[in-house]
Design brief:
alpha/beta; five-stranded mixed beta sheet; 12 helices; globular
Length: 362
Amino acid sequence: MEEFWKHLANIIAEGAESFYGLISLGIVAVSIVGVIIFRRESPKIKVVFFITMIICIISFLIIGHYSIEQGLSERASLESKDGCIESRENLDPKIQISIVKHNDENDMNLKNLFLEMVTNIKTNAPSFNYKGVRLRSSGYYDEPTKFEKNTISTIRPAQFASMMNTVDIIPIFAIKKEGQIEPYYQASFISAKESNIKDLKSAKDHVKRIYVCAKTSVSGYLAPIHELFEEGIIGAISEQAIKDIGWEIINVQNHDLVYQRVKQDHESIGATGLYIDTDPRKSEVTLVHQYGRFPQDVLVISKDLEDYKLDIQNWFENVLEKDNCKMNVLINSPARISGFTRMNNTLKRSYSTISQYHENLK
């Protein structure tokens, strides 16, 4: 069943990229409007529109299927003398962008932004023969577990720490988030505004639950457990040590959910990397404890783009970062990216520390 849905998704994607497929979709849209308008006034015309719509949907799927079959045929015809087959992607290669969460109103701006990048780099490096941009699920929420070719992506610190010694990726920047001068941030423990939990030392006797993020999150999981140990709240660096003092550990999907859950739970604290205003009049939660200096997300490129590393870096620094309108596309995204710092040895050591956090919690 899963294979069926994947195949159907491929057919729809191919149909949508075809001129005739788009015409079919247009007729489907007109037919739907016709069915709605004439549903009472003229049943016969409504039936005509309905039949037209069904025919066009079938035509659209046939066009998508034909495009896939044609692609496979082209692939087979490109078999070289040594028996290797060139993939269809090589006929019309696209840069895959996985930098901020997409599928929202910012999509078109995001795609146009990186189409400009492709054009700019091709001007300086003619061998950069990519024809367009494909948006991928973002590293900000859905980290790629397998890094593919032709990819520019952001990766969370913990993910990068586990991958930094592989040959599949090349780190080029640490990300700065909105309001940050450097690509570092602090982690926090928070409690509800009306809660009696005002500092970490007193938390041990009042907390019944702690909200944390996924086990790959630095400020939402790895660092908090270490900090609880360093502050003498727990006796070992482990989840079990937290349970041993009577706290329930609740994993939620992201930092926003940690924030929302804590606001409504007066017997809990939450671990987060979100910015928490130290002025209680400006915050909906209490800042219980702030600590650390952790490196931000990393912008990486796949190994096959290594020859264009400097061109990509130059575009980010000299074109993107110096144009406020272009940067607003990233600042206004969920990732809140506001700048880039070239990867250096100091940053790499910071990510190595995160790698040690992983080891301690195994």
